[in-house]
Write a structure and sequence with these properties.
- With 97 residues, the protein is an alpha+beta fold.
- Helices cover 18% and strands 23% of the residues.
- It has a five-stranded mixed beta sheet, with helices on one face.
- The chain starts with a strand and ends with a strand.
- FE2/S2 (inorganic) cluster binds next to loops.
Length: 97
Amino acid sequence: MARLARTHQGDRILRGGETLLASCLDAGIPVASACDGRCACGRCLVTVLQGAEHLDPRTPRETALLDKLEAGQDQRLACQCPLPAEASALVITAGYW
Ligand code: FES
């Protein structure tokens, strides 16, 4: 089991224990952001392909911004998702990877 980011160049392993946004950036995967991870811009939107149950539930603040963006139920704001430190089967993607 692993935490993976699915990109056009293949799957990349993500380290846990930090936000999904930070983990992607640490792995060299670009994630758009215009608010420095403050849940204001909505540009860090990612799609969870597998393992959404391993992420914390959406907070009211994340839910409000996702609703404004008309995001799907399978989408999350990477800056608002802490990744569990333990291994979990999680696969995410973004349209521009
Ligand atoms: S980085 Fe702006 S909402 Fe996540």
